[in-house]
Amino acid sequence: MNINKEGQTFQSAQAEILIVGVSKNQEQLEGWLDFVEIFGNPITEWIKEGDIATGLKKLTKIPSFIPSTQVKRILFVGLGDRKTLSTDELRESFGLVGKELHKLNAKTVTLWVDSFVTADIDSTEVSIIAAEGAGLGYYNVQNYKTSSNAIDVKIEEVSFITTADMQEIVAGFEVGQVYAEAVNEARSLVNLPGNILTSVKLADYAEELAKQYDFEIEILNKAQLEELGMGAILAVNKGSVEEPRVITIKYQATDKWEDVIGLVGKGVTFDTGGYSIKTKTGLVGMKGDMGGAAAVLGAMRIIGELRPNKNVIAVIGSTDNMISGEAFKPDDVITTYSGKTVEILNTDAEGRLVLADAVTYAKQQGANYIIDVATLTGGVITALGYDKTGVLTNDETLFEKFVEASVEAGEFVWQLPLTENDKKRIRKSDVADLNNSPGSDGHMIFGGGFVGEFVGDTPWIHLDIAGTSDTRSAHDLGPKGGTGVMVRTIATFVERLAEEDK
Ligand code: BES
Ligand code: ZN
Ligand code: ZN
């Protein structure tokens, strides 16, 4: 998609669609008189009479009825009350715009930036949010239908009408685009079926990404994991015919490899539960058990594009969790990469095992902070539902900063406690240092707490996205399926930390 860097006017704009924000008291908008002078006085009347809706997230499309203009249609976006409009609402509104543009197969679009500005949201923010929201809303899930009549028209050109500095508007729009594209990539990974996205394929994808952004990458295969003694991920992989992979990507921003943020992702490409097998209905959707890995890769894409001044290491443990004569089973005792032993009580609690080795490896490779992200437990859904990511942390100050990033990104996170009593239960075993399933009470806490045993004193944030990584229904910012949750929050967090260092 081309961004037209020449600012447009109402007269010069040639777009198929001109996007305009409308609210009550529209007459007070700067430039409104110029707008109606070109596009016709009745528009103000139509707004008053409700033919053009000003209600929040209401879209009205009209043909541009003045033949002298080169705009074909105007899409009015209801903003409700500009005084109370939040950035989340504006992003969601643009999500709906993105859906509409897709439906219309629009090729050329002009955005009247100033028509979306409020006292709290300036024009640069509008351009970021517009690109991000519309880019997310535009996304469609790929399918494998042999007879599809969908024509895939892409937007070819976007241009802007604004009184603000064009360079800033363009730069903002480009940042928003980067964010949306990275999230959409993560969504596509989550949506890929387990027979297509195996751990080997996930590693291939990571390799491509590394090549594109000049990251250092290492991919450990099964023999190398055996050599290193990564007994936890290997135990999960035992029942599989597919090889496991541990993927490590390094982004070095400063001369010295210090002050490194470690991003650790669960990349279980399909989770049957193993011998502690899931139910028929519980199995469906388990292709998405690599949502944590997708979030990490999505965040790395943004980091690769925007190149913040912060060292980052990403470690992804990837395998599927299958059944065979060789699969691991309850009562097994395994030795993790850290040396700690684990009594297996439930083979469906496999994510924490994969993360245990990945976290240990990340620390060994120099991570000074750990953020792990995983579709770890059904328990987080019981506790928080499908719209909140569950958090555990051992560093409240770090988490406060993370919350700020999540608010900026509009992705809700909520912390649960991890007490000494919880830790005791994770450490309770007659035969090993830890057990992988202390009980059916507090699943989310036991899952994350288990990972914490391998993090130690390193500042750590654990993100359980089992509820938020996939949606069962379409929403303003996208279709049902993979959401790409936490891509934007993690990238924003890294960006803000980098700015702090300046
Ligand atoms: N992959 C699942 C968690 C999950 C559940 C993700 C629903 C997405 C939707 C995880 O490996 C798992 O099975 N967790 C178990 C742990 C339990 C057996 C200790 C759970 O939470 O039920
Ligand atoms: Zn499981
Ligand atoms: Zn799982």
Description:
The chain has 502 residues and is of the alpha/beta class. It has 16 helices and 19 strands. It has helices spanning 32-39, 42-49, 87-103, 123-138, 166-191, 199-213, 222-228, 231-237, 280-283, 291-306, 351-364, 379-384, 396-409, 420-426, 443-455, 487-501; strands at 2-3, 17-22, 59-63, 73-78, 108-112, 157-161, 216-220, 245-251, 260-271, 312-321, 333-335, 341-343, 367-374, 389-393, 413-415, 434-435, 460-464, 470-471, 481-482. An eight-stranded mixed sheet has the order 7-8-10-9-13-17-14-15, sandwiched between helices. A hairpin with a 5-residue loop joins strand 11 (333-335) and strand 12. Helix 3 (87-103) crosses helix 4 and helix 10 (291-306) crosses helix 16. The longest helix has 26 residues, at 166-191. The relative contact order is 0.11. The model has no long low-confidence stretch (mean pLDDT 97). Bound molecules: ligand BES and zinc ion (2 copies).
Proportion of residues in extended strands? 15-25%
Question: Which molecules other than protein and nucleic acid are bound?
Answer: ligand BES, zinc ion
Radius of gyration computed on alpha carbons: 25 Å
The coarse silhouette is elongated
Helix content: 25-40%
Largest β-sheet summary = 8 strands, mixed
Distance between the termini: 33 Å
Mean pLDDT: 97
